[in-house]
Every structure is written in structure tokens, then in C-alpha cells.
Automatic annotation (TrEMBL):
Pfam families: Sigma70_r2, Sigma70_r4. Sigma factors are initiation factors that promote the attachment of RNA polymerase to specific initiation sites and are then released. NCBIfam families: FliA_WhiG (TIGR02479), PRK06986.1 (NF005413), sigma70-ECF (TIGR02937). This is RNA polymerase sigma factor. It comes from the Bacteria. It comes from Marinitoga aeolica.
């Protein structure tokens, strides 16, 4: 986009960039800095100014938001805070959460006993589990694809477009198979862009409980879609 004042664009988008960053940050470890996510979001915004094509029928706002989110997710892919000796516990935690009834709640102490690790390590596992979700199926739910749609080849390749449509249809079927409360949480988080804390207030449950239900939902969906 030519003849655009970049400083003005950044100023206008900054509240939204901060909101997206805070939403992601709500369940990430303390060593992930808000300012770093915001900075990556700004980079994504500036990239959108260079690559936006109004002839493709997408508003600049929608295009920029996708770029902003994508830049933050790319940053999170580059960092790694989980010790290697704990990685094998991730699958076990997923199995435990997947077996939960939506009205059940397993606190960190119980998880620590089941997994035979400390409560401190449980928190690390939860952080990694959340990160893996926002970088895989979570990313799909946010951007409506699991393929790099930024490349020209992807946008014009009929096979890739057909695959994307198939993924969307399969995901819709999987979501409809969830119960109403699970569907509501997905809607509030992805469509309304509410934080776990805000969702907890609506459902009258704790923020950590919303986070746990969210993890269980993503695990279920991944299994339905044949994910690992």
C-alpha cells in the first residue's frame, strides 16, 4: 500500500495488537514477554502493508489481523522452554485430559501424582501443551487453514485449495459433534476473541478450568481429525 503513513497505521492497530498478544499470553509461561509478542505483531502489520492486494476481495483489516496473529505464532514456534526429559510426559497428559468428562476437573496436584512428576513440572507441561495447541490445531482454528496461504503458489494451486476446503468441512463436522458447552467455549475464544479469564466469568468457573477444558477440546478435535 503506497502513500500510507506507517506510524498512523501502527497507532490505530496497536490496541488490537495488544489484545491479541494478551489473549495468547494468558496461558503461556512468564518468560514469554508481552512486549515481544507486540513487537512481532507490529512486524506482521508492516508486512501486511507491503503484501496487501485489495483485488483479492479481502479487507485490509482482516488481512492485517491474520498477518499479526501469524507473526506472533511464528515467534512462539522459534522459542522452546520445555526440558527434553519432560517431553514424553506430554502424550500422557493429553491422554489423561482426553478421558475427562467436561464436568470433571483434575487439579495440578492430582496430575502430578498421575504423571509422577512435581506440580512445578505439571505447570511446565501445561504451558507446552497450550503452546503446541496454538501452533497446530489452534492455529488452524484461528486462521482457517493449516497450510502456508501466503505464498502465491498456495493461493492458485487447485489441489491445495481443495485440501483446505476438505479440512474446513472435517473440522466443522468435528466441532458439531462436541457438546454445547464445548462449542460455546470455542466460539467465545475464537470468534469473540475472549480470554480464558473472561470466559470463566461468563461460565462461572475458574480461568484454569477454562484452560483445561480448552485443552481437552483441542485434544478431542485433533483425534477426530487424525492428528497425533
Amino acid at each position: 500500500m503506497k502513500n500510507i503513513n506507517k506510524d498512523d497505521v501502527i497507532k490505530n492497530f496497536l490496541p488490537k495488537i495488544k489484545y491479541i498478544a494478551l489473549n495468547l499470553l494468558s496461558s503461556l509461561p512468564k518468560n514469554v514477554e508481552l512486549d515481544d509478542l507486540i513487537q512481532e505483531g507490529i512486524i506482521g502489520l508492516l508486512q501486511s502493508l507491503e503484501k496487501y492486494n485489495p483485488q483479492k476481495g479481502v479487507t485490509f483489516y482482516s488481512f492485517a489481523i491474520k498477518r499479526i496473529r501469524g507473526a506472533m505464532l511464528d515467534y512462539l514456534r522459534k522459542i522452546d522452554w520445555l526440558p527434553k526429559d519432560l517431553r514424553h510426559k506430554i502424550k500422557k497428559m493429553e491422554e489423561v485430559l482426553a478421558e475427562q468428562n467436561i464436568d470433571d476437573y483434575i487439579d495440578d496436584e492430582e496430575l502430578a501424582k498421575i504423571l509422577e512428576i512435581s506440580e512445578k513440572d505439571v505447570k511446565k507441561l501445561k504451558a507446552e501443551l497450550y503452546r503446541s495447541h496454538i501452533l497446530s490445531l489452534d492455529s488452524f482454528l484461528i486462521t482457517n487453514n493449516e497450510i502456508n496461504i501466503e505464498s502465491d503458489n498456495a493461493e492458485n494451486d487447485p489441489e491445495i485449495l481443495a485440501y483446505k476446503d476438505m479440512l474446513k468441512n472435517e473440522l466443522k463436522k468435528a466441532i458439531l459433534s462436541l457438546n454445547k458447552r464445548e462449542q460455546l467455549i470455542l466460539s467465545l475464544y475464537y470468534e469473540k476473541e475472549m480470554t480464558f479469564k473472561e470466559i470463566g466469568k461468563i461460565l462461572d468457573i475458574s480461568e484454569s478450568r477454562v484452560s483445561q477444558i480448552h485443552s481437552s477440546i483441542i485434544i478431542k478435535l485433533k483425534k477426530m481429525l487424525g492428528g497425533d
